[in-house]
Write a structure and sequence with these properties.
Order of helices and strands: HHHH
Shape: flat
Structural class: mainly alpha
Distance between the termini: 47 Å
Radius of gyration: 17 Å
Largest sheet: none
């Protein structure tokens, strides 16, 4: 398998690793709750709008998970066991790097940015 194909496969799966490997903010559900609270405050969501927004984000999360699982399953059909193991290791390294960078950025935020 050439490098370009592997790069494309990683590009398709990496965005979903954010959902699969949450940081220390309560996971994807914690991130979703924080996002909804920010939107509630900044957009002045009504009591009627807030549960609709929550449902929409939950639906999005479920779709991301389904796509991730399907992609992973299809990759297992295409790649050899050795290639899959190598790809899983690459993904693990990427996730660790992302979490480290995310933690560093979180530490660098000023109090004004966290509001």
């Amino acid at each position: 398998m050439n490098k370009k194909t592997i790069a494309i496969l990683l590009a398709l799966t990496i965005p979903l690793t954010v959902a699969a490997f949450p940081g220390d903010n309560g996971g994807f559900k914690g991130h979703r709750a924080n996002k909804i609270e920010r939107l509630t405050q900044k957009l002045d969501l009504t009591a009627e709008q807030k549960p609709k927004v929550e449902a929409l984000f939950k639906e999005q999360e479920d779709k991301f998970k389904a796509i991730f699982e399907e992609t992973h399953s299809r990759l297992q059909e295409i790649l050899t066991k050795e290639q899959m193991a190598k790809m899983d290791e690459m993904k693990k390294q990427h996730d660790e790097k992302w979490q480290k960078n995310h933690a560093e950025l979180k530490d660098q935020k000023s109090p004004e940015q966290t509001k």
